[in-house]
Amino acid sequence: MSARLLVVAMLCAFQYWVLTSTVEAYNGGDRDIPLPALATSLVCFALGAGLVAAGELSAPRARGRKSPPGA
């Protein structure tokens, strides 16, 4: 679960970096960047959403497990 959270956080940071780089390049006059950046951002979003959904789907099974007595 912690690894999943770490990967989602890294994907969010990468998306933020893509956004800032795209805006900076666009303001600098490079008009070819926004479409590939959009595609990259959508892939990152899909991966992050998939990881969050997988975590949510596995959470009820993990909550249903009972710890052994005395633990």
From TrEMBL:
Q: Which UniProt keywords apply?
A: Membrane, Transmembrane, Transmembrane helix
Q: Which InterPro entries is this protein grouped with?
A: DUF6755 (IPR046643)
Taxonomic lineage of the native organism: Bacteria, Pseudomonadati, Myxococcota, Polyangia, Polyangiales
Q: What is this protein called?
A: Uncharacterized protein
**Where are the membrane-spanning stretches?**
35-57
**Superkingdom of the organism of origin:** Bacteria
